[in-house]
Amino acid sequence: MESFHIPQAVKHHPRTTCGDISFVLYKENSQPAKNRVIFNCNAISFIVNGAKDIYKSAQHTVVNTGEAILITEGHSIIAEHSLNKAHYQSILIFFPTEYIVGFLNKMNIKLANTFDADNKLVKFKQTPYLAGYLQNLLHIIGHQQTIPLTLGLHKLEELFLSIPPNHLSEMATIFKPLMNDELSLKKLVEKNLVNNLTLDEIAFLANKSLSSFKRDFEKAYNVSPGKYIRQRKLEIASAELAQGKRASELYIDLGYESVSNFTSAFKKQYGLTPKQYQLQQQSA
To answer: Phi and psi for 41 in degrees, rounded to 5?
Structure first.
């Protein structure tokens, strides 16, 4: 049984990535052999042709053509195979937890009373609207279009809005432990990552003094807000660099005074200059 890390294992498949969101067209001429799969983010998988057999925690389900499933980050065992002569095919959307939790909080999605919170999978049928959404994604992926993070976030929210309400409630039940006031601090920082606000200004938006904002943030996430912001900006930069953007196109939006300052910060976190990182990604 092989082990795969997702989304790294699908990076050679056609995809469009913006920041830490990825839209991937996955095709495989595979047999129904089980593989150990480690998700370092969440994914929604739409089955275009074939079937996905998935085990997660104490839950097991089969996702067939015309269905979709939310797979939360962590360990799963998955077997994928075609049911005909065509390749197995799915469309995958990868995204970090804070995006879906932020959406569930913003929309005030209620919990599903009859849904077991220990379940980590939510399966739903593809609606006609979702079919149109997937066709648009296929167009974007097929033309290898580069889209900005703001548009990627818009496409992700469109997806969330298209999921039937009862299944959104099931997702809210899964993410309930994160849907609280503490998370709003992280969400506030995430929303302002590229707005170049000072910590004092972000604390003001949180209705807190700078000292209490720093204290509450570090207590909740075991990292200072300043360090968290630096790390997240560089994570976004690494994804953009992997898509071919140059450091000179990124440093201003990420709040650096010069390319050299950005390069120094990037090398400190990744051990490579932005150009070296790009070359490494291209040769991988």
So the answer is: -155, 180
pLDDT tens digit sequence for 143-193: 866 788 889 999 999 999 999 999 999 999 998 877 665 557 877 888 888
- Model confidence over 83-140: pLDDT tens digits? 888 899 999 999 988 889 889 988 889 888 888 877 779 999 999 999 999 999 999 9
Query: Measuring CA to CA, which residue among 67, 49, 18 is closest to residue 237?
Result: 18
User: Closest by alpha carbon to 96, among 231, 243, 279, 212?
Assistant: 231
* One-letter-per-residue 3-state SS of 101-149: HHHHHHCCCCCCCCCCCCCCEEEEECCHHHHHHHHHHHHHHHCCCCCCH
Task: Provide the β-strand partners of residue 22.
Answer: 17, 94
SS3 of residue 234 by DSSP? helix
Q: Which of 163, 141, 165 is nearest to 69 (CA)?
A: 163
Report the CATH fold assignment for 180-283. Answer: Arc Repressor Mutant, subunit A (1.10.10)
Enter the CATH code of domain 3-177: 2.60.120.280
Residue the block writes with tokens 């991937």: 24
Give me the count of residues in the chain: 284
Q: What is the model's pTM?
A: 0.65
**Which of 93, 113, 96, 108 shows the shortest CA–CA distance to 44?**
93
Sequence spans of domains, the chain: 3-177, 180-283
